[in-house]
């Protein structure tokens, strides 16, 4: 077997359509495109997203994302940040005064991140279950 003698199997390849080669070829004149209309023109077909004149999906859907209104009043406090405060009872106001949470915060929640070495008491500040266990492990308490 030689590389120059390799051919595809008989009948596996069909010859392409020879359009515009006269009436005898069967695809002369209009070349199988019909007489008029968008498909008969060169370069004439719809763009991506065209839905036949119906308002397309990308124009029907809203163009804005979701921003939680509560997110601007809620804040997270890491566990190790509580150790930097020099007060025993930590309230929302003491977190605002220490610049740990932003000024307009209405809700704060302590999350388990880092370690706590001293006992603290949380008042009016929520805590995750992991943070609650870590605070109680060093002798602190959480008041509602």
What keywords describe this structure?
144 residues, alpha/beta, Ribosomal Protein L15, Chain: K, domain 2, 2 domains, three-stranded parallel sheet, 14% strand
Uncertain regions spanning at least 5 consecutive residues: none
Distance between the termini: 88 Å
What fraction strand? 5-15%
CATH C-level label of the largest domain: Alpha Beta
Average pLDDT for all residues: 92
Number of strands: 6
* Helix count from the secondary structure assignment: 4
Tell me about the biggest sheet? 3 strands, parallel
Instruction: Specify the overall morphology.
Output: elongated
Order of helices and strands: HEHEHEEEHE
Number of domains: 2
User: Which percent range fits the helix content?
Assistant: 10-25%
Helix and strand composition category:
alpha/beta
CATH architecture of the largest domain: Ribosomal Protein L15, Chain: K, domain 2
State the strand order across the main sheet. 1-3-5
CATH topology category name of the largest domain = Ribosomal Protein L15, Chain: K, domain 2
Radius of gyration: 37 Å
